[in-house]
Amino acid sequence: MILWSASISGPVLPLYVESLGIGVIGWSLLATSSAVGMFLFEWLWGALADRVDRRLLMLFSVLCMSALFPLYTLRPLIPYLLVLQFFSGAIGVILGPTTRAYVSDESPHESFGFFASLWWVFHTLGRTAGPLIGTYLAELYTFSFSFSTSAVLALVLACLIVLTCPKMKRRAGRSAQKIRILRPTLHTRPAGFLFLSAMFAFMTVALMRSFLPIYASEQIKMSTVEVGVLLSATSAAQLAAIPLLGWLSDKFGRRRVVGIGFSSSSVLFLFFLVAGTQSQLFLVSVVVF
């Protein structure tokens, strides 16, 4: 639900920033500010997730995000959007490590892969539904309405956390064992390749997705709702591709699939330069993302 909440206002944010007269460079600084907040604080929240009650961390995150969402539309705070973006990234990232830790604790060892995949499915469903709702509300009412809806959904999530999340299980021995196993693994060449691949993949996709709404609006002249449909379609395509990519990885090897994915994506990104119509941009976006 937090992805649903955040993705309602997330795709609207670059369009909102555009409506304020802030250019591409300004938006790049705002996107970078959020990424810096995530980068600097995710390790801290991940460490705390094994030491304090995760419900408190999750509640802290969603309540702060619920307060932050409406602040974006307050005129006196527009000069401080960089600060808001930094705190949004630093606080919103709490839910990633804490929810993954919950999945690890609550799923049987022999079924961990299934529950981890299920977590990703709901993650992607939130990213699929959010842009449609957010852009529709922004076009039907105002940008402020989209941010307020995100805030309300965050409050609903806070209630669900209190009512449904189990108390944290203390598994100090298991955590220490995981760290002992993981530490030598981190120094191996395959592990280094894996982390570097993940970093570059995230950087590339995040860069393109952050500018896609503005590009679609300014260059392709898509409406706010059409931009939402475009972003939702890219997430839906990811959901459909996950089982196929998993099967290909098992059949042909993960390294080969990753290599082909990187090389093909680097070529496909060039097609954004020649996508001059809505249908062309839609097709390229769905294939690339």
Characteristic key phrases:
single chain, 289 residues, mainly alpha, Growth Hormone, Chain: A, 13 helices, 81% helix, 0% strand
Summary of the model, kept short:
With 289 residues, the protein is an all-alpha fold.
Total number of helical segments? 13
Structural class: mainly alpha
Look at the structure and give the CATH class: Mainly Alpha
Strand content: under 5%
Taken from the alpha-carbon principal axes, the silhouette is globular
Major sheet size, sense and barrel closure: none
CATH topology heading:
Growth Hormone, Chain: A
Helical content band: over 70%
* Average pLDDT for all residues: 77
Tally of distinct domains:
1
Detail the poorly predicted runs: 172-186
CATH architecture classification: Up-down Bundle
Order of helical and strand elements: HHHHHHHHHHHHH
- Cα Rg: 20 Å
Question: What is the number of E strands?
Answer: 0
End-to-end distance, in Å? Answer: 22 Å
